[in-house]
Amino acid sequence: MFEKMKTKLEMVVLGKKFLFTNIVAAFLMLQNNTFAVEGSGFDADTYINTGFLIFFIYVLVMTIIFLIGQNKKPEEEIEMVRKLDQLINDTKPIEEEHALLLDPNYDRIRALDINLPPCWKYLSYATTVSSVVYMGYYHISNGPSSAQEYEQEVRQAQLALAATSGQATVNVDNVKMLSDAASLAKGKDIYDKNCASCHGMKGEGLVGPNLTDDYWIHGGSIQQIFVVLVNGVLVKGMPSWRAQFSSQDLEAAGSYVKSLHGTNPPNAKEAQGDLLKKKL
Ligand code: HEC
């Protein structure tokens, strides 16, 4: 009777320990994942999905363990849990504990010389190795910094928007410089009514930069101008035009802007941005 109670109790204790270790491991994985997600800009969906994935894997593992243990006799079951516990925690059965007692005895408080749980150890080795890889890639070799990754992502999002702007017949991949009179007239009309207030009647620049010189902040190719028109540069006061105009209209407006290049209007604003020597 007493024997039976003892094993039952032991099993409960082992089971609890096992569960606890797993929850801690799952939690650590989740933490690690938060960190990775932060690096690439926080995305709640990814975070929640990964959380569920980890939880799902955890439930799956527990179910497999349950199924394996199902047809086993109680003794075998205990043995199995014990082996698993051994694998994860490397504990010694209570009967062998006396061999682990350390000698010093401080006011009858004695310490056990136990091994670190292997799951901790391997986690620690893994973080050490990954930190070396991380340092090597991001700090010594030319891995992108967080700022670079961010800029890259913003750029990609802008390109994606530019690719689906307006009626999407014109996008950043097929936008071209239109030079026929009708398109340029349409572009001039859009420009005079919407852009001249900031860029000057002749593109000489007012609040916005001079659009006739060789200097460009965001690049002077028709693709780069198109991306600026679609997305704007909101923080600098350049509006986005994708809600007002179709992509064809923006292609025409961009072409008109390009046609102003080299016209040397009077009262030109000082150069802003980088000099593009190449004939655009
Ligand atoms: C409210 C003022 C304002 C209006 C209206 C405006 N812009 Fe701008 N625009 C700016 C400012 C300010 C910048 C500079 C952005 C920066 O510093 O990054 C700019 C930048 C640009 C650039 C990029 C210049 C470069 O050097 O890379 C282009 C091209 C441009 N605008 C075209 C237009 C066109 C075409 C319109 C009309 C459809 C327009 N803008 C309307 C303020 C305006």
| Annotation field: number of helices | 9
Low-confidence stretches: 34-39
Described by strand count, sense and barrel closure, the largest sheet is:
2 strands, antiparallel
Oligomeric state of shown chains:
single chain
Count of discrete domains? 2
Helix fraction, binned, reads 55-70%
Silhouette:
elongated
Overall mean pLDDT stands at 81
Write the layout of secondary structure elements.
Blueprint (H helix, E strand, L loop, with lengths): L1 H38 L4 H27 L3 H16 L28 H23 L5 H18 L17 H14 L1 H4 L15 E2 L5 H10 L15 H13 L14 E2 L5
Antiparallel strand pairs: 1-2
Bound molecules: heme C.
The site of heme C has 27 residues, from helix 6, helix 7, helix 8 and helix 9.
Task: Write a brief caption for the model.
The chain has 280 residues and is an all-alpha fold.
Describe, in plain words, how this protein is organized in 3D.
The protein is 58% helix and 1% strand. The chain has helices at 2-39, 44-70, 74-89, 118-140, 146-163, 181-194, 196-199, 222-231, 247-259; strands spanning 215-216, 274-275. It is elongated. It folds into 2 domains: 2-140, no CATH class; 150-275, Cytochrome Bc1 Complex, Chain D, domain 2, CATH 1.10.760. Helix 1 (2-39) packs antiparallel against helix 2, helix 1 (2-39) packs across helix 3 (74-89) and helix 6 packs across helix 9 (247-259). It has 9 helices and 2 strands. Mean pLDDT is 81; it is low at 34-39. It has a two-stranded antiparallel sheet with strand order 1-2. With 280 residues, the chain is mainly alpha-helical. Bound molecules: heme C. Heme C (HEC) binds next to helix 6, helix 7, helix 8 and helix 9.
